[in-house]
Structure prediction request, 504 residues.
Amino acid sequence: MARAGASTNSFDVVVIGGGINGTSAMRELTAAGYHVLLAEKADLANGASSRSSRILHCGLRYFETHHPVRTFARSPMRLLGAVKMAKAAMESREELVRLRTERCKPFTMCFPLYSGADIRGWHLDIGFAFLNRLGPANPPLDYRRIRTDLDRDIPFVADLRDRGQLKSVATYREYMIDWPDRLCVDNALEAERNGASLRLFTRAALRERAPDGDWIVDLTDRSGGSEAIRAKVVLNLAGSWVDDIGPVGQQPNQPLVRGTKGSHIVVRLPQRYKDYGIATLHRGGMPFYCLPLEGDWFYFGPTETPFDEDADEARPTGDDVDFLLGEANHLLPGLSLGKQDVGFTWAGVRPLTFDPEQPMGRRTREIHDLTARGLPRVLAMTAGPVQSHMSAGRELRAAVSRLLPPSRPNVGARMGDAGISTDGETDQAGAYRAAVRDEHARDLRGILYTRTGHAWGRHVDRDFVAQAARSVADLLGWEPAREAEEVETFLDYQSRHFPTGNAA
Prediction:
């Protein structure tokens, strides 16, 4: 990079944050003709985008609560909010399944319904009637409620608690977002092909406004090199770190983000569970899932706890694992799961919208105009989940267009319309080299998790990691000592962020 202050590079929009919403906004803005630079302090998909529950849900969860009729009758505004979010979920579900079919894996979700429980069968009947009216007809929900022959039609019924109280099981089609990290990479690469600039492992800080109204943004890479650029509009899409972005010495304001941690445990389940998942409420009244990961690996979660620390350090605790195992065994006592059954765990921090009246934050996506905070032409977004990133990108583009016209012609292309998928080469070493050569990977985490997914869903051993390092050492200029160091760094990251049940 150039010396601070030496650059005259000017952009229409600078996007801060390389997660799913930052890269989606980057793609949309570039396609619309804006000159865009995206800066990310680490790698793409560094935060919540890669550590979510990975479910592409239909929106039923927004109606799931203790005593739903009583709750919504007492608070019509809460009902209207649930309807709005469910409608958005159905629309996002349709768009992702249609445009990113290779990333959306269907499975059958099952909701056990018990006599005397807060949620009754007719509640779900009404809920799915709502969903069918709110959203597109395709992909279908395939909703039905099974009242007889449960052992024949539901593969896990024998493991459920309180069989005598089980009245029926509702089934419907859901999807897993397979590998959301890759969605971020594809977004960024598409934008780059259309003329955007991408700066990874680079911190961005707002310095001041120039006399002409442009923002002076300082970029500092991990080697200490710095550069000053100009931006007419700044999008703060840093997720859990949104509140950390601002000029030095800025007076503190009420936070924009409320971080909540979601932890998960991964276990092996009987083969008969394949392609099925379970939805319910845990004993605390929040949605709780058993979801298919890969093969006979399934995961339980999420938790939902306030998290005020650095999201980079979020990981499951022993209490998280104990809670998830307790709820899993309450739901499926026939499995008798213990810590020794937990293959690994993971946690992410949801950047929900801060609300002093809601300690866990609001799930409603919100774009914040920060003019009143002394930051004109700076926009931030909170509570944008992975599944709605395409509509979030369009909403951010529309918000920018109200502040600034594009400086270039509209290129018209959209990644989703093209249906591209850059899974790399079939040869393993070739895929790793392509990740470095063509996709901005600079370390083993970026190669094995973000760009190829070869480490996701399992613990890879030292030999596997060493072989990957060896295949890219020449491209990254790693001498043998550095190569060995990179292997240790990756294994340390894997053990800290995806610990086993006994290690959490």
About this structure: Residues 1-7, 416-425 have pLDDT under 50 and may be disordered. The radius of gyration is 23 Å. The chain is about 30% helix and 25% strand. The CA atoms of residues 92 and 391 lie 7 Å apart.
